[in-house]
Design a protein that fits this description.
The protein has 101 residues and is of the alpha+beta class. It has three helices and six strands. Helix 1 runs antiparallel to helix 2.
């Protein structure tokens, strides 16, 4: 029987895996349960339905504003349900970064 606890344990195992092989095993087991890993490649638009901003980075141009700079921690989805948002660094106007200090 699959429980939320099993899934949580596998996600935690993927997060702290010592190497790619260990991580791959956890990700494969999650996939077998229908759980999909979510990443946010640099340059894509920030989407609050998938991403959680944990860091702000000054954008080098207005075209880069509100785009992903880097994934800090992957997210996970089970069907339509987000189990964990992708934690990301987001490029914002430089003035917004100055306000955070």
């Amino acid at each position: 029987m699959v429980t939320g606890e099993n899934i949580d344990d596998l996600i935690a195992a993927a997060d702290v895996a010592a190497d790619d092989r260990e991580r791959g095993v956890a990700v494969e087991r999650l996939a077998a349960l229908g759980v999909e890993r979510l990443d946010a490649p640099p340059g894509i638009a920030f989407d609050p339905t998938l991403h959680r901003a944990v860091s702000l980075v000054p954008a080098s141009s207005p075209a880069d504003e509100n785009t992903i700079d880097a994934t800090v921690r992957p997210g996970w989805r089970l069907g339509p349900d987000i189990l964990r948002f992708v934690e990301v660094a987001v490029k914002v106007p430089p003035s917004r970064c100055a306000q955070q200090r």
